[in-house]
Amino acid sequence: MNKVRKIHPDFLYLLEFKEQKLIDLFKDLREYVLEIYPDSNELLYHTHALTTVFSISDKLSDAFCMLPIYTNHMNLGFSKGTLIKDPHKLLKGTGNLIRHVPVETPKDYRNAKIKDLIKSSVDFALQDMEKPTKSIGQVISKIKRAGKK
Questions:
Q1: What pLDDT is stored for residue 66 in this prediction?
Q2: Quick one: pLDDT at residue 1?
Q3: How many C-beta atoms lie closer than 10 Å to residue 92's C-beta?
Q4: How would residue 135 be classed by pLDDT, with cut points 50, 70 and 90?
Q5: Among 56, 79, 108, 148, which residue is least crowded by beta carbons within 10 Å?
C-alpha cells in the first residue's frame, strides 16, 4: 500500500476554512487521483478557488487534472478536457479547453468511468509534453499567505 502524501501546510491552512464535507471530499478525491498516478506533481494555487493541480511535470501546461474547491462545491477539472477522450460524455462546461465533472459524493468519481477519464488525461499529457521532466511526486506551493516570508 502506498503511503499517503501529506497535504502541504499552505494548502491545509486554507482548506481548514472550508466546510467539513468539502474537506473530506477533497481529501478522498486527492487520494484517488494519487492512487491512479502516484508520480504526479501537485501545483497548489489560491485564486478564485483553492486548487490542487496534478501535473506530469512542474509546469501548469503539463497538467492532467485539477481539484478546484469553491465556496460551496468542488469539481474534478481537466484543463485540456476538450482534447481528451470522453466516451461516456461525463465532462461539463463550455470553455475552449477546460471541462469538469461536478463532485458531490465519492460515487461521482470512485468508479471505472472516471478512472478511465483520468488515465486518458494522463496519457494525453504524457504525449503532449514537450520534454521529459525530472520532477516526480513533488508538491509545489504557489500560495501566498499573509505574514509568511
A1: 98
A2: 44
A3: 12
A4: confident
A5: 148
Q: How many C-beta neighbours within 10 Å does residue 55 have?
A: 25
> Could you tell me which residues are beta bridge partners of residue 44?
52, 141
Looking up cell 460524455 gives 89
Q: In this predicted model, what pLDDT tens digit does every residue of 74-98 receive, in sequence order? A: 999 999 999 999 999 999 999 899 9
- CA dist 15 and 133 (Å) reads 29
Q: Which residues are 92's β-sheet partners?
A: 100
C-alpha grid cell, residue 67: 481539484
Q: Which of 44, 55, 49 lies closest to 144 in space, CA to CA?
A: 44
Average pLDDT over the chain reads 92
